[in-house]
Design a protein that fits this description.
Elements lengths: L5 E7 L19 H11 L6 E4 L3 H10 L4 E2 L16 H17 L12 H22 L3 E5 L1 H12 L3 H6 L7 E9 L4 E10 L3
Parallel strand pairs: 1-4, 2-3, 2-4
Antiparallel strand pairs: 1-5, 5-6
Length: 201
């Protein structure tokens, strides 16, 4: 028997002063436009629980919605090491082959001093696995405020997309996707559907 489905809305943060640059564990605040992008996605939302990356571009907005928003470091963006704060154009001019290799396979060719994709994927999956079974039992809608890399990792692990396919999915600043999770109690499995994916209107 399947339990009542759980809806999880997954919101990417809005614009920051470092938008357009590699911004993993760097911690800029949202711009005014960034706040507005996130407001547009959440103006009619109602959630029983809010979970957020602790980085300010996510956490500040989550706390504006609820003072009880839960900080979860497992949902931080991928760490880009020496590329933090730099543009792709700058890195291309310095070492085009390294940038191409990273885009093609960020696990085999991580950024200098940065996080390997397999380690990033594993921590995101750990966070989501810990979150979803208990929440399926609570059956309350949930909002996760996070980053584009985390969203792509979830598309891979929850929907079975390849890395190359997940990388092609457009996730603009302020994008939101909705997952529907259903727990099969007999088999002990959680099944995930993607119900929607949209940018701020």
């Amino acid at each position: 028997m399947n339990e009542t489905p759980l809806l999880i809305d997954i919101l990417r943060h809005g614009e920051t002063p470092l938008s357009g640059r590699f911004c993993g564990h760097s911690d800029p605040e949202l711009t005014d436009l960034g706040w507005e992008q996130m407001r547009l996605q959440t103006v009619d939302g109602h959630w029983n629980r809010i979970v957020t990356s602790p980085l300010r571009r996510c956490a500040a907005f989550a706390q504006s919605l609820s003072s009880s928003a839960q900080m979860e470091p497992l949902f931080q963006e991928m760490y880009f090491g020496a590329w933090e704060g730099r543009t792709a154009e700058d890195i291309w001019a310095e070492d085009a082959a390294l940038l191409e290799a990273f885009w093609r396979d960020p696990d085999t060719h991580p950024t200098p001093g940065g996080e390997r994709w397999r380690d990033f994927q594993a921590r995101v999956d750990t966070g989501f696995h810990a979150l979803s079974p208990s929440e399926c039992e609570n059956r309350g809608p949930l909002l996760l405020v996070t980053h584009a890399g985390v969203m792509r990792a979830l598309l891979i692990s929850q929907l079975g997309l390849s890395f190359s396919a997940a990388w092609k999915v457009a996730l603009p600043l302020g994008a939101m996707m909705r997952f529907c999770l259903t727990k099969d109690k007999e088999r002990g499995q959680v099944h995930t559907q993607l119900l929607s994916l949209k940018g701020p209107s």
